[in-house]
Amino acid sequence: MATEKEATSEVFDYERSDLPMWERHEKWMASVGRVYKDEAEKARRLKIFTESVEYIESFNKQEGQTYSLGINEYMDLTPKEMRGWCIMSHWVRPGKDGEAELVEYSDNEEEDLEHLEAQSKPSTKD
Q1: How far does Cα 87 stand from its chain's mean position?
Q2: Phi, psi (5° rounding) for residue 55?
Q3: Is the pTM of this model over 0.70?
């Protein structure tokens, strides 16, 4: 008998709770094109992925929820990394004329932070 989720939408392999978490992670990685630099990074990201999936599954089992959570492409990011990614990928700041200015940053976080700090320092011109 199909579960409600199976009856209403496509179930991706990485959403199957009968699979070991490492296998779900592998299938998720393939679906979002994620590749890690080495096995240590992969192990660290698997731990984060596991914690995220466990949270989602626990939340979705609670009675009375008006919405449900799902697995997405950010499952291997910590909350801190997620906030940084959201902030650093598109930063809105006041422009010189007082209007909002959208600034896009690169994938180099250190370089972006240096640029942001330099931009936020008051001018020393007299």
Answers
A1: 12
A2: -65, -45
A3: no
Helix (H) or strand (E) holding 121: none
**For the range 16-22, what are the long-range contacts, defined as Cβ-Cβ under 8 Å and sequence gap of 24 or more?**
17/57, 21/46, 21/49, 21/50, 21/53, 22/46
Q: In the numeric block, which tokens belong to residue 95? A: 């422009």
Please name which of 91, 80, 88, 90 lies closest in space to residue 109, comparing C-alpha atoms. 88
One-letter amino acid for residue 56 of the chain: I
Domain extent for 33: 4-75
| H helix intervals, 2-108 | 4-8, 21-32, 39-61, 79-89
Using one digit for the tens of pLDDT, what is the confidence trace for 49-85? Answer: 999 999 999 999 999 989 999 989 889 988 878 776 6
Residues 70 and 105 in one domain: no
